[in-house]
């Protein structure tokens, strides 16, 4: 793929927090049992203060168990959302890659022009592209100029706009033109008028 996704550490962190809650609930539960067990074995009734203390600990343990349950639910919901977002991101990246390749073919870009166009679209500067490709800045500028000429654009932002328009309004994504923002419509109309 031309554009790669970064993995977020949120899922692993959430799993750690759920495990920590679970460990705390378990330790707290064992503590309550250890406090009650000796008095129960001896057949003594706990004092009023000890009863209040145990009731408070039981409420706290109940709240902690509820927190563990809610955390488990949140964790699995977060995993589901993360997977959905990853799948959506993958579909968008795949669509963008497909759009790039189709446009590069239509514009008859050379291999070097394609590589430089991808790096430019990804936001690298001329200097960064030249270092990445181990070529001179003048060569990069020349190839980028050829890309702009073949794509009928005047700048990197216009190149990106053409690619984004193609991606967003392609039939694959089935975006309804009735619901597109008027700014996008006005920009597209201005392009058509200036080209004509």
Describe the structure.
With 196 residues, the chain is mainly α. The protein has two domains: 9-93; 107-196, Winged helix-like DNA-binding domain superfamily/Winged helix DNA-binding domain (Arc Repressor Mutant, subunit A). 78% of the residues lie in helices and 0% in strands. It contains seven helices and no strands. The chain has helices at residues 10-42, 48-106, 111-121, 126-133, 137-151, 156-168, 182-195. α3 packs across α5 (137-151). It is rod-shaped, with a radius of gyration of 30 Å. The two termini are 35 Å apart. Residues 1-5 and 171-191 have low confidence and may be disordered.
Biggest sheet descriptor: none
Instruction: Give the H and E element order.
Output: HHHHHHH
Sheet/helix structural class: mainly alpha
The helix content is over 70%
Average residue pLDDT:
78
Report the C-alpha radius of gyration, rounded: 30 Å
Proportion of residues in extended strands:
under 5%
Give the class-level CATH name of the largest domain: Mainly Alpha
The name of the CATH topology of the largest domain is: Arc Repressor Mutant, subunit A
- The CATH level-2 architecture of the largest domain is identified as Orthogonal Bundle
- Tally the helices: 7
The CATH homologous superfamily of the largest domain corresponds to Winged helix-like DNA-binding domain superfamily/Winged helix DNA-binding domain
- Low-pLDDT stretches are 1-5, 171-191
Specify the overall morphology.
rod-shaped
Task: Give the beta-strand count.
Answer: 0
Write down the domain tally.
2
Through-space gap between termini? 35 Å
């Amino acid at each position: 793929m031309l554009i790669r996704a970064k993995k977020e550490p949120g899922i692993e962190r959430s799993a750690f927090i759920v495990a920590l809650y679970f460990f705390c609930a378990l330790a707290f539960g064992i503590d309550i049992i250890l406090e009650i067990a000796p008095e129960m074995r001896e057949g003594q009734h706990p004092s009023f203060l000890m009863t209040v203390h145990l009731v408070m600990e039981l409420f706290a343990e109940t709240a902690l168990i509820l927190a563990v349950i809610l955390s488990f639910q949140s964790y699995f919901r977060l995993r589901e959302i993360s997977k959905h977002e990853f799948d959506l991101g993958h579909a968008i990246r795949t669509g963008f890659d497909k759009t790039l390749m189709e446009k590069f073919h239509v514009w008859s870009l050379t291999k070097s022009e394609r590589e430089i166009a991808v790096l430019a679209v990804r936001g690298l500067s001329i200097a960064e592209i030249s270092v990445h490709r181990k070529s001179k800045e003048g060569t990069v500028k020349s190839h980028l100029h050829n890309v702009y000429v073949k794509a009928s654009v005047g700048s990197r932002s216009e190149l990106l706009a053409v690619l984004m328009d193609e991606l967003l309004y392609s039939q694959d994504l089935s975006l309804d033109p009735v619901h597109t923002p008027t700014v996008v419509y006005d920009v597209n109309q201005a392009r058509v008028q200036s080209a004509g």
